[in-house]
Structure formats: structure tokens, C-alpha cells
Amino acid sequence: MDVVAQLQTLKDKYKSTEVEKAIPVDFDLRNLVAFDTNPVDHALLRSSPDTYLKNLAREGAQLLVNQIFGLPTETAQEGVFAKLPDATTQIPRAKPIPKEKALTRWENFAKTKGIQKRKTSRMVYDEGVGDYKPRWGYKGANQTTDDWLLEVPDNADPMEDQYEKRREEKKERVEKNKKQQRRNAEEASATAAGRNPREARKAEIQKKIVESKGSTASLGRFDAQLRNEDKIKIKRGKRKFEPATVDASIEKEGAMKVAKKVLKGEDGKVLNITKAVKQVHQKGGLRNVDMEEGKKKKRRTK
Amino acid sequence: MRPLTEEETKIFFEKLAKYIGRNIVHLIDRPDEPYCFRLQRDRVFYVSEAIMKRATCVGRDNLLSLGVCFGKFTKTLKFKLHITALEYLAQYAKYKIWVKPSGEMPFLYGNHVLKAHLGRITEDTPEHQGVVIYSMGDVPLGFGVTARSTQDCRKLDPSAICVFHQADVGEYLRDEEHLT
């Protein structure tokens, strides 16, 4: 009897795990969300909004937890996990879907030839060291500078520095790669703008030639002729001024237009309220301040 | 001699507006006679329509001056006001400063206006504002740019600079060969 009463008091301490709702609540368990579509009791909400909302939230959370506990579970070392079902709510993307990158020349070629990328391991075994090394990059296996001895090929100049040669070759390779990257980027931007990359490049070179021809002291008059040069026409804008005597009213109108534009900035300045109030009170615009005024007053007080 | 291009007009008016503000309009739209701005040897002249028309028969190389020179464009297309523009600046000035008789000569020799020489100033003049400088007898002496606002000027010590010198009528004697 005593135990039953104690159990009852304990039970009363906590709220029931069962919640009753007129309209069943929808769940999206993947996102851990419960959607309660029951109408809000306005009278209760007005009289005691805090307790009402708290209670509503508790009920929703309770229902959600009940649902989660009803899910199939998996036991792992870290504890018991519930397996969440797939999401039912569609959440819009914050960002647009990224655009597909333009193919490089090699990628284009590989696609037409049907060449597929083969996965190679990143590390390679280096017999000289007896350890695995990265295929390339920092401390990579293709780093040739750490060879302590280099053979001079049969038909090579014996005085040639083979190390220097290697370094030069590498430099050239890097340079070539950079050039190709630049070309790929240019072609991609041209195609993205809907132009033929070849034509775009041609037009740009044409423009550069015209620019460079105009940049000599004689504006290109004494330059050496290039092949096909007469095909390139150099057009330069001529300075145009109004005639010295224009109709006065037209000129005034033009000047007024410019003045209006210039004075717009002056009007657009932030309104100085104290200044504006003073101007209204004094009516005659800004007053002049005598610098001696303050001093005289001081003397009087002395 | 030619009219100013739109860009030049804009630069020129922006500089003028620093001193006379909205009163630019009064320069353009005059009740008595149509006046215009003309560019000759990089200098901007304010001239009446009638005189301008007569000046068209003088060659560009021979025409030295016409009307009132307001200033000139630098080679980097900035506008510099000349003291000859004082006549109109003084007439329409928005902010004014009066120097005491003791400060007139130092200013006319091309020095900045010190606090000790400051007689009167327009109320609420902001800092770095174009101002026209007068003697206490209301004779325009030149123009400059305020170093301090009116409020700050009150607290300044006597030897501090109030207005930066830009041009003064002393230039008519000192720089005669540069003025036209």
C-alpha cells in the first residue's frame, strides 16, 4: 500500500508520456521535426501565453521523442542508435547548383578518344631509399635533384652540366604547363561568352597590335611594316569640340544641366539639423560670429 | 578659343561650388546680358557673349585674354582658381572670413590666416571649406580653405592657422607675369 502510494506520487511528479491531439501530428524524423497542425487556442494564449506555449512545445517534443523511441535501433560500442528514415520535407538549396566546369583541351581529347582516367596510387616504392615516397610533390619520387651521380649520355657534350640541364628541362615543363592552363582558361571564358575561342584570340591580338602601333612617339608612322599589316586598320577617335560661337540659350542650357548635376551632390549632403534650425530662426541665412565676443565676456566677468 | 567640354565644365563647376555653392546658377543665368565660359590656352574665361563674338576674329595664338580669367586647367585636368576670379567669388561667397587690420598685410604677402588675425567668421563654417577672405572694411582680399570649423576656431591658440592661403590680391604685384 505504502509502495503504491509512493509510486503514484513519483508518477505525478512527471508528466505523462502520452499526448493526445485532435489532429495527428506529422513527423519528418530525418530532420527531427514535428508539424503540429492543430488550431491554437486563442483565449488560452491571450490569458497565459508563456505557460501555453511552453506546454505546446513540450507536447510536440514528447511526441517526437516517442516516435524516435519507436524506430528500429542498432547497437554499437558507443551506445544504442536509432535508424532515422528518409526525409520527407524538401528543403531548398541556399546556393544555386554549381555550373559544370569547361573541359580542358586534354579532357576534350580524352573524351573523343574514349580515354579513361586510371587510378594510380599516390605512393610509390623507392628502391634506393627502401621506403614509399609520394609520386610527385614535396619529397616526391620524381625529384631528380637528389641524385648524387648522373651519367653523361654517349653523344652528349662532356662539359655540359647534366644537373643544370635537368633543372632547365623542369623549368620549361612548368612553363609549358602554365601556358596551357592559361590557354584553357581563355578558351573556357570565350566559350562561356558564346564566342569561338579562336576568333576571340584573333580579335584580341588584332587589338593589341593596334594599341602597340599607336604607342610609339610617331604613332606608328615610322614603324617597320609587318606581314599583312595593311589589312589592319587603325582607327582613332578625333577630338570633337563645339564651335566657338554657339547660340547663347543652347549653351546656357548645357551649362545649367552640368551645374544641376554638380549641385546635386551639394544638396545630397546629410542635413545638419542644428544648422537648418538656426537658418529658419534667423531667417536671413547664416550669421557671422565675432571672434572677439568671447574674450570681452571673459574680461567682464573678471 | 573654344567652349568647355562637358567633363571640363563639370570639373570647373565642382571647384567653383566649393566657394559659391548654388550661386553658380547666377553666373550662368544672368539677367543683364548673356555670359559664357570659354577656354583659351587652358585658361577659363568668363566673358560676355558680345565680346566673345568679337574675339573670334583673333587667332588662337594671338589671343591673350578676354573677359575675366577664372583660373586654369592643369595638364592632369584639375582646375586651379586664379585671384582674378575674386570679383565673382566675393560677390556670391557662401562662407566668409574677415581678417583684422593687423592680419591684412601678412595675408597679402601670401601667408595663412592665423587665429590671432581672425576678426569674424560665418557661423557653422565646416572644416576644409572654401572661404573668401575680407578685410574688416568688407574689401575682398583673397580666398582660401578653412583649417578648422567655426566651433574649433574659438578654442584655438592665437598662433594656430585658421585658413589656408590659396590666393590673395597681393599676387597682382607678386605674380604679375603669370596672371593674364
What is the CA-atom radius of gyration of chain A, in angstroms? 42 Å
Quaternary structure: heterodimer
Within the CATH hierarchy, at the fold level, what is the topology of the largest domain in chain B? Nuclear Transport Factor 2, Chain: A
Shape of chain B: elongated
Task: Produce a short descriptive summary.
The complex is a heterodimer of chains A (302) and B (180). Among the domains of chain A are: 13-82, no CATH class; 162-212, no CATH class. Helix content of chain A is 45%, strand content 8%.
Question: How would you describe the overall organization of this protein?
Answer:
Chain B: Required for proper 27S pre-rRNA processing and 60S ribosome subunit assembly. Chain B: GO terms for molecular function: RNA binding. Chain B: One of its GO terms (cellular component) is preribosome, large subunit precursor. Chain B: Belongs to the NIP7 family. Chain B: Pfam families: pre-PUA_NIP7, UPF0113. Chain A: Involved in ribosomal large subunit assembly. The complex is a heterodimer of chains A (302) and B (180). Chain A has 302 residues and is mainly alpha-helical. Among the domains of chain A are: 13-82, no CATH class; 162-212, no CATH class. Chain A is 45% helix and 8% strand. Chain A is built from 9 helices and 7 strands. Chain A has helices at 2-13, 42-47, 49-69, 105-113, 162-192, 197-213, 248-267, 273-282, 293-301, and strands at residues 26-28, 33-35, 73-76, 79-82, 123-126, 131-134, 288-290. A two-stranded antiparallel ribbon of chain A has the order 1-2. Chain A has a two-stranded antiparallel sheet with strand order 3-4. A two-stranded antiparallel sheet of chain A has the order 5-6. In chain A, a hairpin with a 2-residue loop joins strand 3 (73-76) and strand 4. In chain A, helix 5 packs across helix 6 (197-213). The longest helix of chain A has 31 residues, at 162-192. Chain A is flat, with a radius of gyration of 42 Å. The termini of chain A are far apart. Mean pLDDT of chain A is 84; it is low at 296-302. Chain B is an alpha+beta fold and 180 residues long. Chain B folds into 2 domains: 2-88, Nuclear Transport Factor 2, Chain: A, CATH 3.10.450.220; 95-176, PUA domain (Archaeosine Trna-guanine Transglycosylase, Chain: A, domain 4). Chain B has 7 helices and 11 strands. Chain B has helices at 6-20, 24-28, 49-55, 86-92, 101-108, 150-155, 171-174; strands spanning 2-3, 35-40, 43-48, 68-73, 79-81, 96-99, 113-114, 118-122, 130-135, 140-146, 161-168. In chain B, the strands form 2 sheets. Chain B has a 6-stranded mixed beta sheet. A 5-stranded antiparallel beta sheet of chain B has the order 1-2-3-4-5. In chain B, a hairpin with a 5-residue loop joins strand 4 (68-73) and strand 5 (79-81). The mean pLDDT of chain B is 89. Strand 7 of chain A pairs antiparallel with strand 8 of chain B, so a sheet runs across the interface.
